[in-house]
Amino acid sequence: MGNFWTRYKRNHAAVFGLFVIALIIVMAITASFLYPEDPFRLVGKPLSEPLTNGFLLGSDSLGRDVASGIVHGAKTSLLIGFVATLVSVFIGIFFGAFAGYFGGLIDDILMRVTEIFQTIPSFIFAILLVAILKPSMSSIVIAIAVVSWPGVARLVRGEFLAVKNREFVQACHTLGMSDLRIMLWEILPNCLSPIIVVGSLMVATAILIESGLAFLGLGDPNVMSWGFLIGAGRTMLRSAWWVCTFPGVAILITVLAINLIGEGLNDALNPRLKERQ
Amino acid sequence: MTKRLLSINDLSILLPTGADREYAVQDINLELNAGETVCVVGESGSGKSLTARAVMGLLPAPHVRIGKGEIIFDDEDLTKVTYERLRELRGSEISMIFQEPMTALNPVMTIGAQIDEVFRYHVSMSAKERVEKAVSLLVDVNLPDPAKIINAYPHELSGGQRQRSMIAMALALGPKILIADEPTTALDVTTQAQILELISDMQKRLDTGVLFITHDFGVVADIADRVIVMQHGKIVETGTTKQVLQKPKHPYTKSLIAAIPRLKPRKARSRAAKVVLEAEDICKSFGGGRSFFGFGKPSRDVKAVQNVQIELRRGETLGVVGESGSGKSTLARCIIRLIDSDAGQIKLGDVDITKLSRSELRPFRKRIQMVFQDPFASLNPRIKVGDIISQGPILQGEDKDEASKRAYELLDIVGLDRRSFDRFPHEFSGGQRQRIGIARALSLRPDILVADEPVSALDVSIQAQILELLDEIRAQMDLSMLFITHDLRVAAQVCDYVAVMQYGKIVETGPTAELFENPKDAYTKSLLAAVPGKDWHF
Amino acid sequence: MTKSTKIFKYVGKRLLQGIPIILAIVIINFFLLNLAEGDAVDVLAGEAGSATPEYMAQLRKKFGLDQPLPVQLMVYLKNVLSLDLGYSFRHDMPVNELIFDRFAATGLLMTSTIILAVGFGILLGLLAAMRLNTWKDAVITVFALITYATPLFWVGLMMIVVFSLNLGWFPTSGMTNIAAFYEGWDYVVDVARHLVLPTITLSLFYLALYTRMMRASMLEQYGQDYVVTARAKGLTERRITYVHVLRNALLPVVTMAGVQVGALIGGSVIVESVFAWPGLGMLAFESLFARDLNLLLGIFLLSSMLVVVVNLIVDIIYCFLDPRIEVN
To answer: pTM of this prediction?
Structure first.
């Protein structure tokens, strides 16, 4: 573990990313303290420029506080990003592990299903799913998970295929170990590094998909989100540039920070991958 | 007096800061004359490959670079010449061939195009002349159907053919020096013998000086005029082949030469009457059966093992010898039921284990265990050594404390410190890992040990120790051993009985001494003839 | 067997493999249609304002909606095979006609985007790898890192703010200047001017992706053994980079370009709706708002098929680039 941190620390950008994400998480947790008012409430003069009328980042056409929206939207983005990633990693590991370990017919069937899901244009599929299931936090999470898991499944399958033929796995067979135990205790721990790296990058992608959905008006109507702010502000683009600009910057910074963390994790976890070969 | 081609004077190569030592190579002196073969011998990490690369100016810069010294070729110091001059010399005056011809050739270019480049960048010839020259080169290196090979991609050739193409490419412009970096290590013995012969033929024809990097004293004995022995980046001994091989002075050289397995078979022991393992008519094919949803014809069937018969008696070591693709490893995995054979019987005592289900098989697992080839791949890097050794008995229902106690005892038996119990595999060297693997195999108190190339990934000196350990354990525990190897010298040393495999079939079998002295099958004869250094009495 | 007949066979085989995938997508489509609350009749009834239950039952019978699901599925499959994707009540037009009307605009946007993203991505990645650890590499890497993290729709809006509203260089939306009635060459120029911002917006993310991949791929290939061989042969660094390394490094990028086509179609929904580009994406956006599910599903089905076709084309290109692909 100490070793991991030393290697991670070497990537300064990744440390910076971690710092930024920590700040955003703190911001999301303390949102109700920073802006106790409901972010949907009309709290002042519409279309106030930043730093006027008591608005740090201005207000939108209805007089909602953009800064409040950003702080509250952080919670939505992070929550959906993490949960959707967890769900899709779980599905991906399940498909990939069984396909890679058992091979043959099981592999064929599972991989054909994966291929179908990979062929379908994912964003349109997500739009359809949310539109049909009616926009809500859970339907958005389901939609993102459904379109994101195939990548993980392919990765995990590849890793399982590579590791299952390693001699230590054969040794486990000769000792009489059960398949499930071999998959969970012997192979999976050896595949975790790439899964963690890919998973961290998927959080970023999930946040981008969520913001896109919200921008198109498919966000949970009861929850503030960055994409919603931008979507609501686009008609006012000519007169109120700030309504669209700041939430976009928030998305950019968050996604960038997560990508930096992903690269740091890759640097920190990859030496072991190389050593294994 | 023959012409001096190359002299390396006081050469030191620096490693990047933070490496385990400062110099990769320190104060090396080396000379090479026209028509001469100089072998640089050493174990992994001795700096022999870097020395060779330094001559070509191919060190992995900027991390590894020359610290001091000179490399004189034809009155020019190669450490000081311009990049452009070095480029001119490479491929025309000094050429190089590598260990792994598959990765050393560009996978997306044809052999012809890769040879053609050598001409294009060094001499001016018309396209037609270049093609003609390339074909004649392929003829020179005895490649069949050169007109076809010129348009072939590397993956379409066999390992031996690839290495021949590499040699054709290296010798295209008749260089003065050929540097060969373990060029036969990745090849089978019979192919190795052919390639070595080819190199020495071409050398005679072109009067080339050959700098040959190898770890194998057998190869040295066959081809070298002079030998340089390296250890930890320094030269420990140099001399003519005869001097070094027969009267080594330095203790390291002595130990290396002592560790070489001899082709002299061990003395036959009397055979026990009791048969512990009997395999009858084992067959196994791969490929075929294209997937469920897939279209097209099923791919071709490879008959990996065909009607193989084997009998292992109590306390004896039975060697299964063959080249890559002979089916020996598949056979071993069928016997231990890592893969299911298509047909035949495998009897442990009186029980045929081929028909048993996984749960029925479990109690029989104890009786037959395996030692694997790759000391790095055979231990789970995420699990502690103690758990690796004790998990077998625990799975078989033994008490956890009892299993740990047994693991400690096994560490003693295989010659490892008891503190190893709480360490992870990556803290150990290759030889030590192999000991851990042996301890794991012994943890279930098996009667039979299947050893699949247990020493082929190890340096010679370590090889000897592991072979000794296996032999001791076999005697001590009255084990029977099925020993898979490609190396006839190793087989000679440890096996009582030998079966020779080719194309999935056993072509000849018999007591080691008898079979080695008086081989009947043509393939056995060619295998024995190809063993490097066989005519040399160290 | 010659190379060309081999590839011909391979294409046939891959086409056959595409069929079950398309079939599966059609089936998924059917179930999504059934998953949605209310059927076409509900929509129609809603349109009409009021309808008696008897009339609705009659309509259901007419459309075959009273049949069991498997029968409906078979009917749906048959319809799709005859390119009948249903009826858009909102537009009062068959779905397939609507889609074909809009197809050209999306095709234009996608083509220009792929050329820009793949072309410049390869160039920038190549440049970064060749100038490793210099300021050029640093600039390219940072540029790729940032664009890789930027949401498409936001880039589009910012482009409009900067290049249309403030600088006035390019039009804000649409595909043509409706008031101008250009013809001939003027028309081409007009469309091209409208195309610039949507293309840049849609391509930025993928440009970043291909740049990063190309850089990593080049660096990986530089470390391969065959590069040492090429140096040992006395080739120039130019030759090594442009002939040996480049071709090998392109392989994963080509594969990736194929995989990303589906994502690109998704991205076009956003970009087209930002720039009011009259393509399939815009149509999808409109149908989303009008709750015109038939139309949305039609677009979904067609774009999936498009991905299958593009993947096939990429596979064929790959065949020519990598001789190791065993066609059989």
So the answer is: 0.85
